């Protein structure tokens, strides 16, 4: 926890059972409703665990202890009065520090935004509050969601709970670290090139990037508007889907939860193994883990066919050009007039778009449309596509802290195509998680959730937590 924490003295309060925080939201909700647990006790347990664990993990920029307890008291009062706001009623949640929470700075980890107080909640935060969720605080990000980890930022970088000497994997770093560290069951992050999914691959959490435009971005700092997505990082597929329903206002036949638990027998998987299996950067353990996960689904009756996606390096170059062009356009004036408001690495990343010509950007957008069409064609023949998340487990942080590095992930293409993608753990290698992606048709979040849940019930990867946590 860093400067600006709302400090709360818990001395003299009843003892709290930290183990309750390891229960799924469904069980927490049942206990909140039958009187075995109060929202106030749940928030106190959360605060105590944050105090014990986060000094080593650094996932929180600001813990909103006092306001969280007030919200918990209101949640308890509502339930006592027969007012039930839904499955997230009384459940703690953390918010990436690119997303506005009224009365709290939205820093983006940028020097020029240390005191950038948000006047009102982002729409996603408003929806969470309306659903009864308790906002616990603001979570770590790479500066302006660009590159990191960078020890020279406004705040120190979040650490990977599985091994603090390795990266968290993307700008929603605090979101995944808080979940992997057992401090929260659900968090809300952003994903422009893979920043919900990358931290999930590397920290062993579940990340759900929804269909482009499904979740409103009002009150969220932009990086590249045609690529920006808002999505949950959670401890399980069900909890990610539950959170997405609230963020996107989904229910009934549109709910991301509606196919949860249904068998995958007879459903068709297009396995994009060509995207990673022969790549020299791919760890054999990663290849084997993804193969095993697909075999698990095949063993449940899913029909698996290997498919070919367009060459990833070409896709990555094209979408990176779009990202750089759009982010430079947003920041050009401030980069010129207030360079001191940026850290060196973020400045260089955002300024990179100055070198791109209009023709180059047009060609990149055409390549993006072609990639989307190729994915759509494959999804006309298959219910989901499956491929690797990252080619390696989380890499050592030291080289990234010296200079910006590009991690070997397979994510950014689905930002330009806008398809929903579920990232989930499918194995471990030398104590570090391995992640996989399940890609669905536009607005078919329920299908990717169905497949992710099928893997979870057949394995224990999503249940495992880092050893040695206090």
Automatic annotation (TrEMBL):
Pfam family membership, one: Amidase
Location of the Amidase domain: 42-448
Function: Hydrolyzes indole-3-acetamide (IAM) into indole-3-acetic acid (IAA).
Name of the protein in its database record: Indoleacetamide hydrolase
Organism: Devosia salina
